[in-house]
## 1
Amino acid sequence: MGLNLDYSDGQTPLDEEEKEGLLIPSVANKGELDEFEQQNIEEAIQWILGRSLKAETIFSERFVKSLHERMYGEIWKWAGQFRKSDKNLGIDKWQIPVALKTLLEDALFWVQNETYEADEIAIRFKHRIVNVHCFSNGNGRHSRLMADIIVEKLYKRSVFSWGAANLSKESRIREIYLRAVKEADKGNYQLLIDFARS
Ligand SMILES: Nc1ncnc2c1ncn2[C@@H]1O[C@H](COP(=O)(O)OP(=O)(O)O)[C@@H](O)[C@H]1O
Ligand SMILES: [Mg+2]
């Protein structure tokens, strides 16, 4: 076999941003990091599982932050805290609290007034909160878990299947997902709703 310059996914080194605030110094590469994060996320799901939650609770800054903290608190020092730097994705860091507040108020209104059906409310919320990009990392997974919580806790529906794939990794299914996200950017949510139930 010749020299393999192509890192397999499990060996992708962490970039500077990913190393910052890492609470487990032994993590050497992206594959290991993904596994630690996944374990932590499963604990967050356990925390959520038996609880009944009202719309007023779910759509609060406190809940949005504590869910992120529960998902990543064992891995990242900054889990559950709004990001302190600007990204290529998301709005200016100073606008996060107000943009999130607006979104939380809108979502509560949609639920109380049945503006859209359940899946559409969850997916619209998911899409908008990712575009706020509240945290330094983990926003995609956090937004999908928020959507799952909305349909399960508020509508007693089953959680989304999200293409039945790990969307954090490069894959054909992730490409389909990102195409649906871009359609949603233009105000067309149907592809993303269909994807979430596929
Ligand atoms: N053009 C894009 N490329 C990559 N991710 C995008 C794009 N547009 C929106 N996103 C969203 O941003 C998320 C990535 O943000 P990130 O904070 O790294 O989340 P995570 O670490 O959970 O993947 C994606 O899951 C996706 O929902
Ligand atoms: Mg990420």
## 2
Amino acid sequence: MCLEAYKAAQVHLGVRSYPVLVGGGLLIRLDEAISEYIPGVTGCIIVTSQSVDALYGGQAMAALEGLNPGKFIVPEGEDAKTWGATEKLLGGIIGHGLDRRGVVVALGGGSVGDSAGFAASIYMRGIRVVQVPTTLLGQVDSGIGGKTAVNHPSGKNLIGSFHQPSLVACDTALLATLPRRELCSGLAEVAKYGVVSDAILYKGLEVEVEGILSGDAERLRWIVGRCAVSKARYIKADERDDGGVRAALNYGHTVGHAVETLSGHTIRHGEAVAIGMVAASRVAHSLGLLKQADLVRQINLLHRLGLSVDVPYRLDEVIPLMKRDKKAEASSIRLVLPTGIGSETVVRVASETELRGALGGYDDAP
Ligand SMILES: NC(=O)c1ccc[n+]([C@@H]2O[C@H](COP(=O)([O-])OP(=O)(O)OC[C@H]3O[C@@H](n4cnc5c(N)ncnc54)[C@H](O)[C@@H]3O)[C@@H](O)[C@H]2O)c1
Ligand SMILES: [Zn+2]
């Protein structure tokens, strides 16, 4: 199959435009993809985590043999996203001797993508990065769009940069080894795209739930491709998330972030987003913006995807954290509210009273 046939989307950003390739078998064709889409590469370093390395590191090294590949292992999960880990990673890149025309290949979940992307953005004032996301969340969300970040003890993703990749290669065959919980967590973000921008994707999820959960390759390729198209459109319209357009992608994230934090990150990001989506939809419904049927459709789909939808904490615990969310102004609670499935969202500042009115009846946590 020719590489162009894998191209699910193009992120249009002038000279920084890049393709998003989606399909099974891309990992072993990474050298071909790099030489086709990124001119003049002099070398590369694969940045990955131990568990992903054990599964796919060998294939990636073999595929990139012609590009003098180095490899650097970052810690697993959020532990990759610290200053200390970033300093070590930069040491690895320097040690491999990458010059300004070298590329960082981020092979792993969103945490690897965020830390490798951040290191690439500051090494020699910025070198190119290829995102090869290996989780569903990475393929539909974090791998595309150029947001990179590490955490600070006082907050997640507080230190980072915008650094667009030069290529995103989503090998959907790699999702076969993903633990079911990670798959379901990623599917929450897929459902989010459906609600905020893609009614056909949403319907496809409803019809194909069983096939998707069983890891059907063709269905996974289809959903990752559609999400890539949506995300590419948002990035073109609002690259730096300051024009209000990309805000739609934060649907479910205000309550979601609070839930994630309260759980000490034992609740996965997508699991928290599912809870946040239903909370925001309950608010939207109570304000007359969303039909009851569209709220119920989301609750039903998320349940079928193996996700919980009720806020597992008291509102007294959740609300203060929502006010602290870095996307909220001083003490107001800014929510992205849906108006239908696949319809426009609206950003609205909700008062605490409105929030309690909409969610109070569901606040059955101890
Ligand atoms: N930059 C962005 O725009 C953006 C967007 C959303 C989320 N994020 C960030 O992404 C991170 C979460 O990413 P995540 O959900 O991918 O989690 P993760 O990177 O922690 O990966 C989850 C787990 O899956 C394992 N894994 C990865 N690929 C696998 C595979 N193919 N088979 C088996 N196991 C595999 C990993 O080793 C890890 O243990 C967070 O830090 C979040 O802040 C960034
Ligand atoms: Zn998210």
